[in-house]
Specification:
Length: 604
């Protein structure tokens, strides 16, 4: 797989694009007449409406409605929204900005002598709401695209650069394009205008700088980190947006590394110490910019920080987050950013979050070595040049991404691992380029090596990532039982181990397990050895699963569905023989074949 598209797209913002840029940046000529004067030959209030019922060349355009909310484009290209109660005279003036005279011409209020003395706010509202009804239902969550990278329906890259868009090799005004609205925003750094090959490509220099940290995996971690930087640039355009968690003790260079990230992205990075989901989504809005959250540390109560991690989880696939609004209505938020977290002591991450990020660690630098902060040459150009590399390579992204996913699948990764690491590897590849990779022993024809180097068994984020059914069962087996406090066995797993070792008789084990709503059977003809019978409900079981993801209310828990996700050789819930008598009552149970589960734990 090569990046031949670099030659085809190079210099797309050359002289012709610069002419467009100059024209786009020029202020509009003042065309609005003074109050009472005609606009061309059209007198105030005597205009012919367009298809939506608006006056000609109206500086405020209507996008549509969603319930009581009317969505508009104001006079400077920003998104505006209002309910009927908010649509007063001051809001109308805010919409029209420096085009106030247009109001006097389009919706004039005349005095008794026929002279224009003001404009009619009620007529403005009537006109704009009528246009909203004609435009129809419009959803801001699905339609609004802020700063960052996006794609159209054909997969072509669109860069929202704040004041302009870059699409189809041309700079265009922001606005409603191809079914989406791109509001005017503060300007972001634009892709470099010129050649970014060979010595002019800053990616190898950046990679060399990243290698100066004391990474836990020196040949892998800096490469993945470079890939995260590339993924941050592409944000909303990516099919999957993985995040990264950087772990290291104090004084290992985490802050310096964050500083390099800030240098690369410039104003296109959302760097925040705010570790609340509300603070982040209020800041990011509809933008698809990379987000760096420093010091996301574990706390006594991790609910706040886990809310931020959940936001990153939703951003990976572009899922919706719902929250309550000030007027008691639901507000939807859709994140499309990649996150960089850093911490000394990270919070405990559940499997669904670990599958969407890479965990990398850095240690202290060798005290015998002279430590000097790395220097980036031409720091103001590195971000635009890297962005140009990614723009030029975008036509090859999909094919290259699938090649890396295939290599990772061969190494044992599931679909989530393929998506996460495939994105990092593809972005790093696009920035470094084929020639550099060949010269530095990263042969393109042997991408399968990455499947072995990033095998799941070698990754720290997979050490504690267990399948849901197994984590549920292991929690149960390790649970302490208060009723046994005066005995030698304090947890269920210990009791079953004594049973297997014949320290405890079958009858004694069954009696003790019944105290916590559990049963025990032995069906050699159907299931080999002993089977632990876990009923679908029970107050004692609910207590053991309290404050876990598998708990429940009223004695009915989630553990039933969780356990039944396990393999058939270990978990059985066949209705023909899963009815077990526990403490004198017959109950439907999930059966765990103990010797098969023990074999699994010994092999893993």
């Amino acid at each position: 797989m090569t990046l031949q598209g670099e030659q085809q797209i190079r210099a797309i913002v050359g002289s012709a694009a610069r002419q467009i840029e100059t024209r786009l940046d020029q202020p509009q000529e003042a065309v609005d007449p003074m109050p009472g004067e005609p606009r061309g030959e059209v007198k105030p209030g005597e205009w012919m409406p367009d298809a939506n019922g608006l006056p000609p060349d109206c500086p405020v355009q209507v996008l549509g409605m969603d319930g009581d909310v009317l969505f508009l484009i104001d006079a400077i290209g920003q998104l505006a929204a209002a309910t009927p109660s908010q649509f007063g005279q001051s809001f109308i003036q805010r919409l029209f900005g420096d085009r106030q005279n247009y109001l006097y011409w389009a919706w004039p209020r005349h005095d008794k002598n026929g002279a224009v003395e003001n404009w009619r706010a009620e007529k403005v509202r009537e006109c704009l709401y009528s246009a909203g009804a004609k435009k129809g239902v419009w959803n801001s969550v699905e339609k609004v695209r802020g700063l960052g990278s996006w794609t159209d329906k054909d997969g072509e890259l669109i860069l929202h650069l704040g004041d302009v868009l870059l699409m189809d090799g041309k700079l265009r005004r922001t606005g409603e394009i191809k079914g989406h609205f791109y509001p005017r925003r503060p300007a972001c750094p634009r892709p470099h205008d010129g050649d970014v090959d060979g010595q002019n490509n800053p990616a190898p220099m950046l990679y060399q700088i990243l290698q100066t940290w004391n990474w836990q995996r020196p040949t892998i971690d800096p490469y993945l980190f470079l890939g995260w930087i590339g993924a941050g640039f592409l944000g909303g355009a990516l099919p999957w947006r993985p995040s990264m968690f950087l772990i290291g003790d104090k004084a290992v260079g985490k802050s310096t590394l964050q500083g390099i990230v800030q240098t690369v992205y410039g104003s296109a990075l959302v760097s925040t110490p705010d570790t609340t989901p509300a603070g982040i989504y209020q800041r990011i809005g509809a933008d698809a910019l990379p987000i760096a959250v420093d010091e996301l540390e574990a706390e006594a109560d991790n609910r706040k920080v886990m809310g931020v991690v959940k936001l990153a989880r939703l951003a990976a696939s572009g899922g919706l987050m719902l929250r309550g609004g000030s007027d008691h209505t639901g507000v939807a938020f859709q994140a499309r950013s990649t996150f960089l977290f850093s911490a000394i002591n990270p919070p405990p991450l559940p499997p669904q979050d670990l599958s969407r990020l890479a965990v990398i660690s850095i240690g202290k630098l060798d005290p015998q070595k002279v430590s000097q902060a790395p220097t980036i040459l031409e720091p103001e150009k590195i971000g635009p040049k890297l962005l140009r590399r990614l723009v030029n390579g975008w036509p090859q992204f999909s094919a290259l991404y699938e090649e890396y996913r295939t290599a990772l699948r061969g190494g044992g990764h599931d679909s989530r691992g393929q998506d996460t690491y495939g994105t990092f590897l593809t972005c790093a590849h696009m920035m470094l380029g084929d020639d550099w990779l060949e010269e530095n022993d990263y042969p393109m024809e042997n991408l399968s090596d990455w499947g072995q180097r990033l095998a799941p068994t070698l990754l720290p984020e997979h050490e504690n990532a267990k399948e849901n059914w197994r984590a549920c069962l292991e929690h149960l087996l390790s649970s302490r039982v208060d009723a046994w406090r005066n005995g030698l066995r304090h947890n269920i797993g210990g009791l079953l181990e004594d049973l297997q070792d014949k320290v405890l008789s079958f009858e004694n084990a069954r009696t003790q397990l019944a105290q916590v709503d559990l049963g025990l059977i032995q069906k050699d003809k159907i299931l080999p050895g002993y089977c632990l019978a876990i009923p679908n409900s029970g107050p004692a079981l609910s207590h053991l699963f309290k404050d876990t993801a598998w708990g429940g209310q009223g004695g009915i828990g989630v553990w039933q569905s969780a356990l039944r996700q396990g393999p058939g050789s270990i978990v059985c819930h066949d209705k023909n023989f899963n009815k077990v008598k526990i403490a004198g009552f017959s109950k439907r149970c999930t059966l765990i074949v103990l010797n098969e589960f023990q074999r699994l734990t010994e092999e893993s």
